[in-house]
Amino acid sequence: MIDRNDPRLTAFALGEMSAEDRAEFEKMIEADPSARAEIDAIRALGAKLGSELEHAAAPALTEAQRASVAKAAQKRRIPLAILFMPVAACLLAAVAIFWPNEVEHATRVGPPTMVARAPEAPAPAVAPPPGVTGVRAGRPAPGFRGPNGSVAPGQRTPSDPAPSAPREEVTEMLALGSNGGGAGDAEKPAVVAPEEPGGGGAVPVLNTRRIAESRDDGFLAEVRRSTAAMTAEMEKKLAELQRERASREGYDRIRENPFIRVAEEDSSTFSIDVDTASYANVRRFLMQENRLPPPDAVRIEEMVNYFSYAYEPPAAGSPDPFRIHVEVAACPWDATHRLARIAIKGKVIDQRERPASNLVFLVDVSGSMDEPNKLPLVQASLRLLANQLGEKDRVAIAVYAGAAGLVLPSTADRQQILDAIDRLKAGGSTAGAAGIELAYEVATANFLKGGTNRVILCTDGDFNVGITDAGALTRLIEEKAKSGVFLSVLGFGTGNYQDARMQQLADKGNGNHAYIDSILEARKVLGEEMSGTLVTIAKDVKIQLFFNPKTVAGFRLIGYENRLLSKQDFNDDTKDAGEIGAGHSVTALYELVPAGMDVPGPPAVDKNPFVAKAEATVDEDALFQLRLRYKEPDGEKSKLLEEMVRDGKGTFDAASPDFRWASAVAAFGMALRGATAMGLDAVLEIAKGAAGDDKYRHEFLRLVETAKLLRR
Amino acid sequence: MAASREEWVETALGRYEAPLMRYAARLLDDTELARDVVQDCFVRLCEQRPETLDGHLAEWLFTVCRRRSIDHLRRNGRMHRLDGTEPAVRMEDPVERREEEQALLERVALLPKLQQEVLLLKFQEGLSYRQISAITSTSVGNVGYLLHHALRTLRSQLAPGRSQG
């Protein structure tokens, strides 16, 4: 049974399928009368729409506008005229000079009527040649109407050679519904890139330079001025186009956590998150696209967690797979507040001791992946990973596009794996759900008890075939995660990047999510931190803080907006939370308002007269009690850890470099999200003092510098 | 491509003026602006070599038209709205038309913008998924998805007895 939401029904009805897909689909619907009825209904509606839309009125250009187009077309053919024409018009004409081949070609090959019409002397700037105006003058005012009317026979000179290509194109273009046309075009997509840099738009700039060698200075100066204006306009346009692209990327609105009064709510609960995708994405905006990221692309916890910190791992023989480090110091952006950092460091697993792994690469090979920063980068990334695998590691590769398929059954043969990676090709639309089903099936079939079982999904997130409803897809992943197979979501590409959905999939699939914007990032995620990416050491890690009202008036969790849990979720083992990988560290920051101070935000809620005053505190001086729950990777029951945290009253400057670093990254994230508490200069100063010689931290300094420039 | 540039442009103008005007007028909600944009498209066409656009003329023109329209919207967005000018062009044609037709086209006008755009490029201009994908810079898969859902919405609305999904 084909789902009625499957867009293939429409693609089939409108003849938009490749012969291969079509044959396959025909087989599928053979025994499915409801699908066939659906297709008929789509065709009927298509035909109806076609015939009705055909009559929709179209306004026409004015005669003056048509004349100016005709003039522009004509000027191209009289290069000498540029010496005598007004400068604005020159720019167009200038292009013609430097396509001498073309002009020559047109003169030689063109039909006689045309050569006769080509004026050899400068044409008057105003009057278009009779051949053009004559035709236009005889046209009814509304111009060509409707698709059928748009080819207007009898309005051309009898000797018109009727160029064949455009006419065919129109016939194709008007062929409604049934065949959709474009069969020829499908072979050579995206050849046309109007107005892109280096494309047609850049031509005048080049050409005017060449004019410079032979024309006089006054003229040259004018041309330069106009060219500069044109270049500026083009740059602006490019920036706008980029903005437009970004607007198609999918980011969920982030509402920053507000300050909460301890008198009203004395606990805070959240799930840990080791994702780093947002930082790589922010870096892409700043460094590759030279613009500030959209605020909702900035997830502060993912920026802070991108970096590695010198937190001590648990001692050998520790009953817990990680160690907790809490540090409190003055808040750098509000000296009257305190900043508490809660850090968790996972145990480190040596590459040689890494348990055997059963990996399934699930690669999106749909048409949208056919870009240099997508599939080729996926291949490079997977090669990187495959090259580090040992003999006990197995890899299978599944792909999905129009249909999902297994291109490499699970194997430990590295050469076979590498060959299969090289053979991946893009094409087709994205049936993500079927691919996910298949990948989990293969992973489950090869399940290694006590080993790493993981599906690694590589995609731009543009799922649009099969289960397209985001809710259904996450439910599918949630269901699959119960099999004990973990998920890594690696995001690729720009322009259509569905960040929100990918994060959600990773979250529901017991997984992690990284954004791969370059081969360097691939090396970090799949090379240096491969063990952490692959080997989960604890799952469903939840953190809860109970604040002491005697020392803390209010608090705010920085970041983790998407990871907040209700306080009841903490003890509820059925509630999913984040995983932590080998060697991973997780850092969370709380801004605390000391007792006796005003808490920023709306006015306080009045006290409930029936509730007695706060009882005696167990530890008068503690700031909060830190509580943490986690499960072993294959466990069902959570373990609880508790710790009292006091304020050492330290200044910010005396805090550890890692504390200062995390604060600087958080402050940068807040600034990118529009907060004004701390300027970028101050961020940079703190960061510089805490960067050490870590190359990723030094890259961050460049990001802040860039953001400073872009802010201006 | 044996025609002269003038004739090439003239042919293109003859064939694509109405489709582009219709498209731009809908994107911009303003006939005058649409005229400027479409004129500009054709002037830009004069700067192109016919052979580079061979077989891609429709895509090229619609793409330029869309980008220019978006430029206008962005540049004048605020002004445009503040000045209170009513949309000049609507789907509804004052000329008499069967009621059923009216209903269908009104439904089309209620679809989400991008679905509307894709639907019209498909059924009014007869472009292929591939061409529409190039014009609207969205994936071919997404074009198929948008169109399928637009059609489903229309069908469920036109046949109220039938449930969707």
Structural Rg of chain A: 32 Å
Low-confidence parts of chain B lasting 5 or more residues at pLDDT below 50? 78-97, 161-165
Low-confidence segments of chain A: 77-216
Mean pLDDT of chain A: 75
Oligomeric status:
heterodimer
Number of E strands of chain B? 0
The biggest beta sheet of chain A is recorded as: 6 strands, mixed
What's the overall average pLDDT of chain B, rounded? 75
Helix-and-strand structural type of chain A: alpha+beta
Q: Provide the helix percentage of chain B.
A: 55-70%
Mind telling me the C-alpha Rg of chain B? 17 Å
Alpha-carbon distance between the two ends of chain A: 57 Å
How many E-type strands of chain A? 16
Q: Beta-strand level of the residues of chain B, as a percent range?
A: under 5%
Helical region count of chain A?
A: 25
Numbering strands along the chain, what is their spatial order in the largest sheet of chain A?
A: 7-6-5-8-9-10
Which structural class should the secondary elements of chain B be placed in? mainly alpha
